[in-house]
Design brief:
Belongs to the succinate/malate CoA ligase beta subunit family. Pathway: Carbohydrate metabolism; tricarboxylic acid cycle; succinate from succinyl-CoA (ligase route): step 1/1. This is Succinate--CoA ligase [ADP-forming] subunit beta. By secondary structure, the protein is α+β, with helices and mostly antiparallel strands. It contains 13 helices and 19 strands. Strands 8, 9, 10, 11, 12 and 13 form a six-stranded antiparallel sheet that branches. Helix 11 links the parallel strand 17 and strand 18. The radius of gyration is 26 Å and the shape is elongated. The structure holds guanosine-5'-diphosphate and manganese (II) ion (MN). The site of manganese (II) ion (MN) has 3 residues, from loops.
């Protein structure tokens, strides 16, 4: 589960990670109030207004309605509500949102931390994630902060520092020092970076996160190290033991169809193709999507109805798939192992009748226990549903349905 930057920064701060301070607001007046409080607390007289959406690239992204960037600087208190109004309520399009963009409901009003001083402010990159291959957590760091890290990884892989941490042993002091040293830091900035990495790692483990990405980490002109941005991805499987973090979920940031599917216990991911599919088991779902591609179609979704495919789950699946206007045909591919094919076939017929007129052809491929009986039930239903037993047969019927 992803959370907003302002929530991620609060989480980090609670573990002692130094952050660029800020206050969230949902109106221009609220933004002004936030700026006044921030001025009183930190003395800052410049402010950064940052769109809160679950996507990066905001600084370079544009708000459709106003042409404002998603991260802007206000150099006076009066300028804060004006700049906030250019972002709030608009649709921000960045390289990570897709062309449709994301509606901005909140802004973070943050202190300016790029103030002039003894040295130039310098941006670094830092992330912590799970390396499944090595069964370890890994800290990735780079002096190329603020840049697109994928680009750095591709063009200058030598500029990415990696330090693996055995989860049973935890982060050792020398490892944090090694990263800070490789980043070329010295003096107070070195000490600050060691502290930053250590508390960041504690936050990562303590919150059961799957990924942290801090881009940029800033060395201020007076050698403080702090998080300017924060992307936190929490491990869904551990949310049950973090009720406070689970409450940070923002469904407005999620695909409405995926939210609805989740409520019915379905595992649904929307894709861009024209053939909807409904399958029991994630592996079979992947194979079915491959099969749709081989037949000349494109999968419109991934949908795993889980082990207990029945009339209720099939109906919920139908309703979700049919909300996608791109769908030209639906392929149901179910393996009757624990559930028998005749029961699934009856479930499909029942769900179909309950929905009424389904405007696209449906191909049902049932294999396993009582497969022939299942096919017979489908064929004799009198509905716009055709049966298949082999994958090849199903693929041909899908092809005919969409061409
Ligand atoms: P992203 O574009 O979504 O990754 O948003 P970031 O939080 O990383 O901010 C984008 C950019 O805004 C940063 O790389 C900085 O260049 C700039 N920025 C952020 N905070 C400040 C600030 O306090 N002062 C100034 N002058 N620029 C800032
Ligand atoms: Mn960033």
């Amino acid at each position: 589960m992803n959370i907003h930057e302002y929530q991620a920064k609060e989480l980090l701060k609670s573990y002692g990670v130094r952050i660029q301070e800020g206050i969230v607001a949902d109106s221009p007046e609220g933004a002004l109030e936030a700026a006044k409080k921030l001025n009183a607390a930190t003395g800052t007289s410049w402010y950064v207004i940052k769109a809160q959406i679950h996507a990066g690239g905001r600084g370079k992204g544009l708000v459709n309605e106003t042409g404002s960037r998603g991260v802007v600087l206000a150099k006076s208190l009066e300028d804060v509500p004006v700049k906030a109004a250019g972002i709030l309520g608009g649709t921000l399009v960045t390289i990570q949102t897709g062309d449709e963009g994301k509606k901005v409901n909140k802004v973070l009003v943050a202190e300016d931390v790029y103030y002039p001083g003894a040295s130039e402010p310098k941006e670094y990159y830092l992330s912590i994630l799970l390396d499944r291959g090595k069964g370890s957590n890994v800290i990735m760091a780079s002096t190329e902060g603020g840049m697109d890290i994928e680009e750095v990884a591709e063009k200058h892989p030598e500029k990415i520092i990696k330090e693996w941490i055995d989860p049973k042993v935890g982060l050792q002091g020398f490892q944090a020092r090694k990263v800070a040293f490789k980043l070329g830091l010295e003096g107070n900035a070195f000490k600050e970076m060691v502290k930053f990495i250590t508390s960041l790692y504690n936050a990562y483990v303590g919150s059961d996160s799957a990924q942290f990405e801090i881009n940029p980490v800033l060395k201020t002109s007076d050698d403080k190290i702090l998080a300017v941005d924060a992307k936190v991805n929490l491990d869904d499987n551990a949310l049950y033991r973090h009720q406070d973090l689970a409450a940070l979920r923002d469904v407005a940031e999620e695909d409405p169809l995926e939210v609805e599917a989740g409520k019915s216990g379905l595992n649904y991911v929307k894709l861009d193709g024209n053939v909807g599919c409904m399958v029991n088991g994630a592996g079979l779902a992947m194979a079915t999507m491959d099969m749709i591609k081989l037949s000349g179609g494109e999968p419109a979704n991934f949908l795993d109805v889980g082990g207990g495919a029945n009339a209720v789950t099939v109906e919920a699946g139908f309703r979700i798939i049919l909300q996608d206007p791109n769908v030209k045909a639906i392929l149901i591919n179910v393996f009757g192992g624990i559930v028998r094919c005749d029961r699934i076939a009856n479930g499909v017929v029942e769900a179909y009748k309950s929905i009424g007129n389904i405007p696209v052809p449906i191909i049902v491929r049932l294999q396993g226990t009582n497969a022939e009986e299942g096919a017979r039930i489908i064929d004799e239903s009198g509905l716009k549903v055709s049966s298949a037993i082999t994958l090849k047969d199903a693929a041909e019927k899908v092809k005919a349905a969409i061409s």
